[in-house]
Amino acid sequence: MILPIVAYGDPVLRKEAKDIDEKYPELQELIASMFETMYNAYGVGLAAPQVGLPVRLFVIDASPFAEDEDIDEEERRVLENFRKVFINARILEETGEEWAFNEGCLSIPNIREDVYREEKITIEYFDENFVKHTEEYDGLIARVIQHEYDHIDGILFTDKLSALKKRLLKGKLANISKGKVKVDYKMRFPDAKKGR
């Protein structure tokens, strides 16, 4: 089932999400709906807060990045097959050079900015069957994980921008929260009634 994606300005996007256990109601259906919602919006990751649930869950399918001409064959193979569910994730370590990449977010449509993040991460999480994993990632995979991980900590990519960039985006962000933005996927706007 395609769920509405929560827009910038909704308080759920600012909450630090809570851990869940295998008894979480209809977890498998939620995971399936999150993937379906993400694919419908042409995203590569989606966190539970973005569908209005303050829980530590996010899904990623990095295969669209495999079509990028600027990546090598080894990274292409990794990206093509990277489809994962992360439950109760904790990033244990971020290392390496910070590098810029132009990020966007389904909750902040039509805004893209360069964000600096460290290149390698070590992450501990449970998969959809509640099997625990500790894994290391780098490059684009690490970047997508860091972006989605921020969501479960109540952080948005716009928080990582300079004060000047934030000021320049203030009007656009206000319009998003009021529903004054065109998107081709289902969204829920916090201030839509106030803005009309």
Automatic annotation (TrEMBL):
Binds 1 Fe(2+) ion. It comes from the Bacteria. It catalyses: N-terminal N-formyl-L-methionyl-[peptide] + H2O = N-terminal L-methionyl-[peptide] + formate. The active site is at 148. Keywords: Hydrolase, Iron, Metal-binding, Protein biosynthesis. InterPro entries: Peptide_deformylase, Peptide_deformylase_sf. Its EC number is 3.5.1.88. Fe cation binds at residues 105, 147, 151. GO terms for biological process: translation. The keyword Ion transport does not apply. One of its GO terms (molecular function) is peptide deformylase activity. CDD domains: Pep_deformylase (cd00487). Its cofactor is Fe(2+). HAMAP family: Pep_deformylase (MF_00163). Removes the formyl group from the N-terminal Met of newly synthesized proteins. Requires at least a dipeptide for an efficient rate of reaction. N-terminal L-methionine is a prerequisite for activity but the enzyme has broad specificity at other positions. Belongs to the polypeptide deformylase family. This is Peptide deformylase.
